Task: inverse folding
């Protein structure tokens, strides 16, 4: 079945959550949002492009930092209200210069930072 | 630093998105939502408990199906507005009886189902 970005379920703001996973290490890198235009741009360019809620603008991941995400594969979940993008990540995914945004683990009730800055 | 569920950033509905990853296979299994109470219950019981938006009730994952998720570790992202739970998944994570909810891949513009039902 041919894919149409309009067939996804977007929230009241027209957005869908997107989980980015490194296709090689399989680390979960980050979660961000796309609108239908960002989904289409990501598929058209293979350059992962989110929608920045704070800037209300397309956000080509890594456009400024160089820490781009090349799309390897996009997957849709069973409810069509969430996307998974498997990516080839250049440099750290997180703006704090860590490999993943999920660098804080909860261990024995304490917050522990488990990744170094690159 | 001691962790307090109230320190997370919840949306206007009091919810935070949660990505579940199999801690062994490293497959991304699903994305769902928690409120502060569900975060606390998940940590207290090590039984992953979401907030069901459709039922407006706690959703102990697998309580009916038996396809439970035992919490191995919870991680917080850099913006404190998304969680990653590493889990030990019993049976399929998806209500369609597939290992992961992300069983539809976009390949050459077509939707392709890449996982069998268990």
Result:
């Amino acid at each position: 079945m041919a894919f149409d970005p309009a067939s996804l379920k977007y929230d009241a703001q027209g957005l869908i959550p997107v989980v980015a996973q490194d296709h090689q290490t399989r680390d979960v890198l980050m979660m961000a949002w796309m609108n239908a235009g960002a989904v289409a741009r990501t598929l058209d360019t293979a350059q992962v492009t989110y929608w920045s809620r704070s800037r209300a603008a397309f956000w080509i991941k890594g456009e400024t930092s160089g820490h781009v995400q090349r799309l390897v594969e996009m997957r849709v979940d069973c409810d069509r209200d969430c996307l998974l993008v498997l990516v080839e990540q250049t440099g750290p995914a997180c703006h704090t210069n860590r490999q993943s945004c999920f660098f804080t683990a909860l261990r024995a009730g304490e917050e522990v930072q488990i990744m170094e800055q690159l």
Notes: The CA atoms of residues 92 and 99 of chain A lie 4 Å apart. The first strand of chain A starts at residue 16 and ends at 22.
